[in-house]
Records
---
Amino acid sequence: MSVGAEADCRFSLDLNPAVREMRDWVHGFARDVIRPAAPEWDEREETPRPILEQAAKIGLYSLDFFAQQWLEPSGLGIPVAWEELFWGDAGIALSIVGTGLAAVAVSGNGTHEQIAEWLPPMFGDADDVRLGAFCVSEPDAGSDVAAIRTRAVYREATDEWVLNGTKSWVTNGGIANVHVVVASVDPALGSRGQATFIVPPGTPGLTQGQKFRKHGIRASHTAEVVLDDVRVPGRCLVGGKERLDDMNAAVDAARLLTWRAAWMARQRKPFDHAEGSMCKLVAGETAVRVTEQAIQILGGYGYTRDYPVERWHRDAKIFTIFEGTSEIQRMIIGRAATGLDVR
Ligand SMILES: Cc1cc2nc3c(=O)[nH]c(=O)nc-3n(C[C@H](O)[C@H](O)[C@H](O)COP(=O)(O)OP(=O)(O)OC[C@H]3O[C@@H](n4cnc5c(N)ncnc54)[C@H](O)[C@@H]3O)c2cc1C
């Protein structure tokens, strides 16, 4: 690391010029627009759309502004901006930042395609302000998110997920354009069996349940979201099914190479192209790679002895070593391909 880079990473709470400038700009909006409007929207107990429109006009309620502050190098962009907005009024501020919950859920775990497709319609633009909602909590699953009952069932024939359940306490619930919903795919696995789904605007079956009348932050809309046979396309599973699919494909490829070598051996066909080494190399390396990915998918649990994947990973490693290491198999394959005594 260069001396300059070290200096950049030093712990410091001095706001850099860009964050200071942004703070003053947001403070001005909070002072001139949010604070004067706060009593009215507290009484009305609804999302202050005209304020969101004004914020959108100056670029404050926008995907660009949120993304800039999330990526701000010192990490202080978001806390500084949010502090100024909430200084203006907590309810109006929550209406401005609430969409961020849904946006983070998709940008944190979604594919590049999902981020590009679904974040813009969560914010809209100054002429057509839109909202996002992140739906996790349920009447019996608040702190204990593992208890979520909303179910997601995959219908292979139509490549759709079908969502059923009731979400509670959702900021922008039922009035958002894009709802991001956490649901259980396999209840037996608790939180590890849950996945996140994007529900596109206007999807039939998603409705607003009761709207909560709250003690405070009343300019922010909080409501139940009812999901009754809500069908979303397969591509709306956040993160996509591809990664597991990749592991399956790798295992299947290794299996095919192994079966081919076994069949050739039984037919007494010569391994002219080092087919035996190919299957040994690919199957051994695949076993190590997919068991490592399985640990990664389970996160911290995968690294404990509570689940068998860490043992499978330890056991898999030997297949790249005994009966001819991966390096030796590569040499044999190289020799068969080139005719050279590759070492
Ligand atoms: C205004 C508002 C906006 C919200 N916005 C959203 C949103 O946009 N999306 C969303 O998904 N959710 C949202 N929520 C839900 C919020 O995340 C939950 O209310 C919160 O997680 C608490 O869950 P709960 O209300 O079910 O309370 P419970 O989990 O039932 O807790 C009740 C009490 O029991 C205590 N408790 C629970 N478990 C334990 C334990 N193991 N040990 C010790 N004490 C415990 C809690 O601390 C609390 O005091 C919102 C809630 C409100 C009020």
Note: The first helix runs from residue 3 to 9.
---
Amino acid sequence: MVNFTLGYKNNRVRLGEKMASSGHIVLTSHSRPGSNHLSPIHWGAEDARTRGPIIGSVSNQSHRNVIGTHSGSYSVYRAISVAAGRLDPAHVPDLTNTSPVTNVGPHNQWFDPKKIVSFDPWGHLVVNEFKDHLKEGFDIRPTIAITQARLKLMEMQEAIAQRRLQPDGQVLLENGDVNVTKIAIDPVWHIPGLADRFEVDEHTFRRAIFEQMGGMYPELVTRSDLEVFLPPIGGITAYIFGNPDTLSDPDVRLACRVHDECNGSDVFGSDICTCRPYLTHGIEISVEMAQRGGNGLVVYNRKEGRALGEVTKFLVYNARKRQKGGDSAAKYFERTECVAGVQDARFQELMPDIFHWLGVTRIDRFASMSDMKHDSLVNQGIEIIERLDIPDELVPEDAHVEMEAKIASGYYTSKSPKAIEDLDSVVGRKIEE
Ligand SMILES: [Zn+2]
């Protein structure tokens, strides 16, 4: 630590000078002669080298073939690290020993440019597939990493105590720990594919992002030759229970939960929604399926508060609890729309990409009541055999408002939904309670 601090103080001056001495600011809004023809990207090509590497490095402007840069929302922190003199802007990652613990793909779905549009299917294979480029000094970074982990969750210990699950020593250990493979995925957008998925023309799509981001990334509107964008947003984490090699095998059954981030409930146990109970229920059915020779998959998307963000979400909570008549299922969606202008911005249209990437064509047990998630998967050709609603005993008291509102709006349930006129009777805790 001492060494680091001393080193950092000396470095800071040196790196600051380095930034200042790099001279003029390079604008990216127009291509320079001779650039952009080094590594063309052929999205959907049948091998990585034909597809071409994604080069979002800022250390050599002439190598870049995308808009934006790596690490999603964390790219901003990388920029601050450079500004603060703690990171050498020319640093190139040493990728020794970082390769995936298990292989994924390639699957046929990778070769249809319209099937995977929101991340790079070759993102975990960069070190092998682009060896020659790396040797030549191109700064090409993995956008997917695959590792192993052990999960320690109170709910799994409870499931063992209540005899819903039995340890098997492999998937679920005696102490309740769960063995998993986990995969982190950064966003890599193929703009024509995204525009197509949302059924808008590419120009409208590019212009809306440019303007609504306050004029960020002018290349969106000036460089139609650049088709790939690394957006500054959160990515995906996938947790696989069982044998990842058999995920794409149609003879092996799959249990699955697709979960959109809800930090308040997922991490802190806040009781106004059913997110954590549904997440751990998804893990439980995944463990159970893996124990029976199938696989489990939990997909965790960084889309806090229906991708409207936590500030909007907490504003809505207050508006719901302070409205006339209190928090009620009848007015649940209305309050979100009053604050945010939309009810939901998660755009499940992009969510099926990870299933295509993993080669999954069928989900045998799907732990989700969301009609949007279901319809989006089915529209993308992924079969869903059984839909599971969250068991009643897992729904916190105050979360019944959300649950009934969602069911009335079309969410799946195996029980009979309440009539719209009965929704007024489902009320939550008052703000002062
Ligand atoms: Zn929640």
Note: Strands lie at 67-68, 144-151, 178-185, 189-190, 228-230, 236-241, 254-260, 295-301, 362-367, 383-388.
